[in-house]
Amino acid sequence: xxxxxxxxxxxxxxxxxxxxxxxxxxxxxxxxxxxxxxxxxxxxxxxxxxxxxxxxxxxxxxxxxxxxxxxxxxxxxxxxxxxxxxxxxxxxxxxxxxxxxxxxxxxxxxxxxxxxxxxxxxxxxxxxxxxxxxxxxxxxxxxxxxxxxxxxxxxxxxxxxxxxxxxxxxxxxxxxxxxxxxxxxxxxx
Amino acid sequence: xxxxxxxxxxxxxxxxxxxxxxxxxxxxxxxxxxxxxxxxxxxxxxxxxxxxxxxxxxxxxxxxxxxxxxxxxxxxxxxxxxxxxxxxxxxxxxxxxxxxxxxxxxxxxxxxxxxxxxxxxxxxxxxxxxxxxxxxxxxxxxxxxxxxxxxxxxxxxxxxxxxxxxxxxxxxxxxxxxxxxxxxxxxxxxxxxxxxxxxxxxxxxxxxxxxxxxxxxxxxxxxxxxxxxxxxxxxxxxxxxxxxxxxxxxxxxxxxxxxxxxxxxxxxxxxxxxxxxxxxxxxxxxxxxxxxxxxxxxxxxxxxxxxxxxxxxxxxxxxxxx
Lengths: 189, 322
Hints:
The complex is a heterodimer of chains A (189) and B (322).
Chain A: H1 11-22, E1 30-35, H2 38-49, H3 51-56, E2 60-64, H4 73-76, E3 95-103, H5 107-119, E4 124-132, E5 144-148, E6 156-161, E7 167-172
Parallel strand pairs in A: 1-2, 1-3, 3-4, 4-5
Antiparallel strand pairs in A: 6-7
Chain B: H1 23-37, E1 54-59, H2 64-76, E2 80-85, H3 97-106, E3 111-116, H4 121-128, E4 134-140, H5 146-159, E5 167-171, H6 178-189, E6 194-198, E7 214-216, H7 219-223, E8 228-231, H8 247-254, H9 258-261, E9 269-271, H10 284-287, H11 294-313
Parallel strand pairs in B: 1-2, 1-3, 3-4, 5-6, 5-8, 6-7, 8-9
Helix pairs in contact in B: 1-5, 1-11, 2-11, 5-6, 5-11
């Protein structure tokens, strides 16, 4: 399947759908956590879309950059740009809604869960993904999904942001999207 | 030109001196350190990046603070750490540096943090080790102390984010100071427009102007309107012969007191790499005063050292990930 054959869904529409699906979960003691960078954008937008429920229940939020927890660090090292994780609330006993843009192997989610547990012991974690592209490699799956878009391994679907802040999905050159299990280690290893 | 600090793809392989490091790498170290600052404020002050790696602190010269902060940095990255004060062990029995290093490699060390009184010691070890082993210079003679230079710049950036608009004065024993050299290289590489050095002629290296600094011998003129004052320690142990009349005399002329601090901008910050000689290069009221960022330097030093170790230990680095 080439990129031209796929009609990509409208991210803004999916975001609205997600907001409706998430709303019933919001209660006191819930917190939203977005995974950098796409998940963090989604979270910022959800804060606006769900502003009424969020202020009613005084729902807190934060972001995670899972670079320091990735299982492919030994092969790939740090990406050139990391952002500080910001979890400005007590994670203990919180119901965390963890937000990612594209769910793929499950390795990012695993890294994010490991990092969250270094902040405290959450009461629960619910995984939300805008798109589930299939291809998971771990027994981890999102509970709330905007849409399922099955893709081949060489296809790299990313959530991107227009300069006006609106979000869109695009297929990018595939090199960096290869599942980590098939990455070749370089000659230094 | 072959730069021993970078691999063939331009990624950091060893950290030996700030001289010769591209601005991009310097910025990457500082930006990565930013992410590590928060790790120390969490319930679990550890990330798993260096899990299963062994870091060897090889200290041929004593330094409690530097060794401790490197140890803490490595431990917060989940590495196993071994600290050796080599002057008190094998070297006194006649073992050469490279024999010591080879023995530790045989024990599967992955990274060496090296402090030595001889300039070039870390380069010497870096040239010797196989490709998968990384070397960090933690101070070599009068030559270089790159992580100190980096943590100083990191601290400055925290308080004064716009480096392109700063006037920085480095005061004291420039001649014997590897810290000063590293600071000067870091500041000028990152675009600080005006770096001054203030010292008596006897404590300035020949042709110091070639490093791109403005030279002052008088605190009054040198401190006027600066944003940042970086004090240096008077290196008693490196001082041979009579370069100075006395510590009291030095304090009178070059010691940083409240009166002299008032010559700088009112929001100027004061740094010192430690250990301080109170009443020699800096007055206690300044060291403990509101403008002092000497203890934040220590805290940020851990994050900067974590960033360097993480960048060295990662297989390839630089790639984007999804």
